[in-house]
Design brief:
The complex is a heterodimer.
Chain A (H helix, E strand, L loop, with lengths): L4 E3 L2 E5 L4 E6 L4 E9 L5 E8 L4 E4 L2 E6 L4 E6 L8 E9 L7 E3 L3 E6 L1
Chain B lengths: L4 E3 L2 E4 L5 E6 L6 E7 L6 E7 L2 E5 L6 E5 L5 E5 L8 E8 L9 E2 L3 E5 L1
Parallel strand pairs in B: 2-11
Antiparallel strand pairs in B: 1-3, 3-8, 4-5, 4-9, 5-6, 7-8, 9-10, 9-11
The chains are: A mainly beta, B mainly beta.
């Protein structure tokens, strides 16, 4: 079964508001990554947070990781219409020889102008 | 700097046929992973190729096979196509074959099975 599970499945907010998406996973990880996917396109890497990190920032993005709760959150501040997309968390598993990312089902984010 | 390129972009096949999808990794990358993404779902890992060998495989039947060439490009082959194989097939590349780094994705091949 897939490790990452995003919550909520869909989120609709007004431009300028903040958007928060959550991800939970089941077993130990090396790192957790967030990706964005615009409709019909490939995935774009947003941010990677390692298992020994608790918070990471990149521009308007803030990611937190709580390994004790096996959860992560992605915060997008001051949202823009261009942020409309699906967002996926992906877990990179501890102990695996190769890099196998396990994705959740994603959060569909809609930014209303 | 060329990113990950996949071909073809769209493909229509009928049940029982065979298909080959192609991927060229981002310049400087030597590792290619393949994912299947059904409509409305997250991508699912099929397998990864590094040094021309399959290093890890997800929960996919043997109908799914692949190959990596000396120039690091890769092919995904699917035999005896089923309706359930309809999906977006994504290729991702990285360097070194190990974990701990972002993967760079192509825009995928949309495969439709009639």
């Amino acid at each position: 079964s897939q490790q990452g599970e995003e919550d909520p499945q869909a989120l609709s907010i007004q431009e300028g508001e903040n958007a928060t998406m959550n991800c939970s996973y089941k077993t130990s990880i090396n790192n957790l990554q967030w990706y964005r996917q615009n409709s019909g396109r490939g995935l774009v890497h947003l941010i990677l947070i390692r298992s020994n990190e608790r918070e990471k920032h990149s521009g308007r993005l803030r990611v937190t990781l709580d390994t004790s709760k096996k959860s992560s959150s992605l915060l997008i501040t001051a949202s823009r219409a261009a942020d409309t997309a699906s967002y996926f968390c992906a877990t990179d598993h501890r102990g695996e020889g190769a890099q196998k990312l396990v994705f959740g089902q994603g959060t569909r984010l809609t930014i209303n102008p | 700097d060329a990113g990950v390129t996949q071909s073809p972009t769209h493909l229509i096949k009928t049940r029982g046929q065979q298909v080959t999808l192609r991927c060229s990794p981002k310049s400087g990358h030597d590792t290619v992973s393949w994912y299947q993404q059904a409509l409305g779902q997250g991508p699912q890992f099929i397998f990864q190729y590094y040094e021309e060998e399959e290093r890890q495989r997800g929960n996919f039947p043997d109908r799914f096979s692949g190959h990596q060439f000396p120039n690091y490009s890769s092919e995904l082959n699917v035999n005896a196509l089923l309706l359930g194989d309809s999906a977006l097939y994504l290729c991702a590349s990285s360097f070194g074959g190990a974990g701990g780094q972002p993967q760079h994705f192509g825009d995928g091949t949309r495969l439709s099975i009639l």
